[in-house]
Amino acid sequence: MRTRFAALPGNLRGAILMSLGGVLFATEALFIRWMSDRGIPVTTQLFARSIGQLIWVLPLILAAGLAVFRTRRTGMHLLRGGCSAATWGFYFLSFSFLDLTTATVLSFTNVMFTTILARPVLGERVDAARWAGTLLGFVGIAVMLRPGTDIPLIGALVALAAALSWCGITLTSRSLSRTESTQTVLAWVGIITSACVAPFAIAHWQPIGLVDLLILAVFGLVTPGIIWLVTEALRAGEASAVAPFQYLRLVVIAAFGWVLFGEVPDGWTLLGALIILSGAVIITVSEARRR
């Protein structure tokens, strides 16, 4: 089976892997909603996610030893880890206020924030297509959050905060990639994210049963696979051909939100979602071609 998969064209392999990553991303959102409905605190969910991520990078740390942490850019690593903790914290919390589709769509705005900050922070050239996608994305936000909407403002702000801090992950990762190895970046982020989340998890700890503990274990160990799938997808195929498949998760989440939770966004929300998605795809394809 593995040999047959390896024989497929690179772009097709990349598309399959990226699609699987999108499905796993959607599964993560469903887990968050399910665990929240079961009364598992968001901070406990975050801690399980951060420990799972740390377990995934532990072999890298063990193979390289403490030398993997050697760096002259400790401050940037701390910022990268802090952005990661903030992103997942706001992202998880957004599902407490918003339906699955709306929270997911607003998370896509991270690429718009990245476009705005790429020039002043990293000195990157931003082409017309990326600016057009950014403008389109903010038009979509305005449509979704129009006056009279049923979408809670606090929920929208939390989701946008997640997108903005996600932008921080992207920008700091690009900066670190210029001087640091992937192993060093992953090792630092695993340690820092867990350290950031642990105090909140302890402060809000509630006793949980064996079933919930097993759910958290599966959640924490499986969902970090998103990073692996996305990385391998981009390794297998051309970024411009593969990257848009990550947005498949919106279709999966919308379908399960409807079937499992009876969530049906209104027409204006769907229109705004389509506009934001279009802008995100334009930016993603343009950036992938540039690279």
Main structural class: mainly alpha
Q: Give the helix proportion (percent range).
A: over 70%
End-to-end gap: 32 Å
Q: What proportion of the residues form beta strands (DSSP E)? A: under 5%
- Weakly predicted, low-confidence segments: none
Following the backbone from N to C, one meets helices and strands in this order, namely: HHHHHHHHHHHHHH
Alpha plus pi helix count: 14
Mean pLDDT comes to 88
Record field, number of beta strands = 0
Q: What's the story with the biggest beta sheet? A: none
Radius of gyration: 19 Å
Instruction: Tell me, briefly, the overall form.
Output: globular
What are the defining features of this structure?
79% helix; 291 residues; mainly alpha
In a few lines, what is going on in this structure?
This protein is mainly α and 291 residues long.
Topology:
Elements: H1 2-6, H2 10-37, H3 42-64, H4 74-94, H5 100-107, H6 110-122, H7 128-144, H8 153-177, H9 182-203, H10 210-222, H11 225-236, H12 239-242, H13 248-261, H14 267-290
Helix pairs in contact: 2-11, 2-13, 3-4, 3-9, 3-10, 4-8, 4-9, 5-8, 5-13, 5-14, 6-7, 6-8, 7-14
Descriptive report:
With 291 residues, the protein is mainly alpha-helical. Helix 4 (74-94) crosses helix 9 (182-203) and helix 6 packs across helix 7. The protein has 14 helices and no strands. The chain has helices spanning 2-6, 10-37, 42-64, 74-94, 100-107, 110-122, 128-144, 153-177, 182-203, 210-222, 225-236, 239-242, 248-261, 267-290.
